[in-house]
Structure formats: C-alpha cells, structure tokens
Amino acid sequence: MRLDRQGSSLVVRTPAKLNLFLDVLGKRPDGYHELETLMVSIGLFDTLRFEANDSGGLELSLAPASPGIPKEMLPLLPQDGRNLILKAAQLLRDVTGCQLGVKIHLSKMIPLQAGLGGGSSDAAAALVGLNVFWKLGLTSQELHPLAARLGSDVNFFLDSAPLAICRGRGEQIEPIRLGRPLHFVLVKPPVGLSTGEVFSRLKIDRPRGSESICRAIETGNVSLLGVDLHNSLEVPSTELSDEVARTLASLRRVSSVGQLMTGSGSSCFALCAHRGQAVQAARQLRTLSRGQVFVVQTAT
Ligand code: C5P
C-alpha cells in the first residue's frame, strides 16, 4: 500500500492478492472455517482518493474509467453504506468519536468476485488512509481488530507485507520474507463467485500442509513452489462454475511452473519462471478469449 499527498487530497494505492496455498482445517462454531493460507500481494492496484467533505457526510464515488468492473458487474459494487470502504469509515468514526466527513473516489482495477481480495484491500486502504487523513493516530495494533471486524482478508492488506501465512478466519498474519520477485499470469473469467457460496459447498479434506511450500519460498526454488501450489476451494468452485475448470485447463496448456485458482475464485493464475514466460503465456491466453488476462509480479 502506498500513500501520497496530492495538494489537500490523500491518494492510497492498494494491491490485489493471490493465495499460493489454501488449506481449510475445519468448520468453527461461529460458522466460519479455520484456514491456513499463504497470501502474496501482486502489482494490480485499486486507488482511493480522499478529499475533505464539509457536509460531514461519508461519500463514495467510482471513477468512470474503472476497467476492473465491466458494466454487468457494477451492481455488485454498491456505492452506499453496504460498501466495505464506507463500513470502514463508519467504524473508524464509531470507535474514535471523530465527526469529520470525507469524499472517497475509487478507481477500481482489481476485478470483483475474483478471489483477488479487492474489496478487503479497499477496506484496509480506507482504514489506513482515513487514520492519516483524519489524523486519528491509531496504531497498527489498534487497526487490526477493526480490520478483522470488516472481513477475513482485510488484516493481510493493513501492514503491506508482500507475503504472509494467514490463519484463523484469515485474520492472523505471520509475514514471511520473500527472497526474489515471483511472476504470474492471471486470468479472470467473465463469471464471478461468491465466497460464502463456495465455502458452503466445501467438503473438508485432509490438509496438504505448509511445510514444503514454505521451504520452497525460503530457498527461492520456484519449480518446487509450482509443484506445491494447492487450494481446498478449487473443487467446490469448479463445481459451481465450469468457467473455473476451463480457465485452469487453459493455464495448463501454456508454459509455466504451476497453476492454481486463487482464494474462492473465480480467477486462476500460473506461476512463471520469469517475466518473459508470463508475457508469452499471456499472449497465448488472450487468443483463447477466456476473460481478462494480466501479467503481474509480487508487489513490494
Ligand atoms: O469474512 P468475509 O466477508 O471475507 O467472508 C465471506 C464469507 O465467506 C463468510 O460469510 C463465510 O461464509 C465464508 N468464510 C468462511 N470461512 C472463512 C472466511 C470466509 O466460511 N475463513
């Protein structure tokens, strides 16, 4: 996440994520699932601009050039109090007693319902951005419980760790050192998937574990990392949507070191040995018209 002052405005750029593995360990009494997952920030960003609002209201508007959202997906992005950005703003006002208003302008590049954490990333950007813009002075330790109340992935984006193992609902973060940049080609099929619906179809299986994949990260062994990519949610997501299975099949046809669906889908990615391989794979995938294709690397 990057913060820039531009005149009286504050501009925050916040990334998408991929899950390099995701194990579901069990169902919890609160209805959520206990997870262990490895998340990595990637260079695909939403931008939030914060401006003063003398009316004292909380307002959100969407930039007309928001290529992350085709027209038919627009209803999935409410611009009222149901949006996580405005929920984050309201939560900050509730816990601090701050009465200030804000106009937030969102430029959306991260596709919706894609398993890329866009909504959570925007919520984290709202917490971090408004903490600065409203001069609230909250510490990272104070922001984390607020993040967890907003959604399971919001905590990951708060501290801008490029790579972290996330546990619990996803809100317990253990940052991991990333020795070298990782390169991906990412495909977002035209359909989106609801996280709740995917979890509701899941049959919990034995977790594959994190040991081997963490060793691959530590040693910078990309080939080994490619072999260890795994995601418990791939089965229920492919049951819900043929598009996910077709997207994974397309990714298996291009040259890469491993392929996976991210989060609860619907996006899938291939891990590539270097940027050149990702660019070449993207060129091939674009001819198949499977959806939006991005060449990305880990965000720093
Ligand atoms: O917390 P978040 O809004 O991201 O979760 C969306 C939905 O995904 C939840 O309502 C729940 O149904 C499901 N979920 C889950 N276990 C998790 C995270 C999400 O069951 N660890």
Quick summary of this structure?
Helix content is 33%, strand content 29%. It has 10 helices and 12 strands.
Description:
By secondary structure, the protein is an alpha+beta fold. 33% of the residues lie in helices and 29% in strands. The protein is built from 10 helices and 12 strands. Strands 1, 2, 3, 4, 5, 6, 7 and 9 form an 8-stranded mixed sheet that branches. A 4-stranded antiparallel sheet has the order 10-11-8-12, sandwiched between helices. It binds cytidine-5'-monophosphate. Residues 32-33, 35, 151-153, 169-170, 195-196, 199 line the site of cytidine-5'-monophosphate (C5P).
Secondary-structure topology with pairs:
Elements: E1 2-6, E2 9-27, E3 33-52, E4 58-62, H1 84-96, E5 102-107, H2 118-133, H3 140-150, H4 154-158, E6 163-168, E7 172-175, E8 183-188, H5 195-200, H6 211-219, H7 222-228, E9 230-231, H8 234-240, H9 242-253, E10 258-261, E11 268-272, H10 275-287, E12 292-297
Parallel strand pairs: 2-9, 4-5
Antiparallel strand pairs: 1-2, 2-3, 3-5, 3-6, 6-7, 8-11, 8-12, 10-11
Bound molecules: cytidine-5'-monophosphate (C5P).
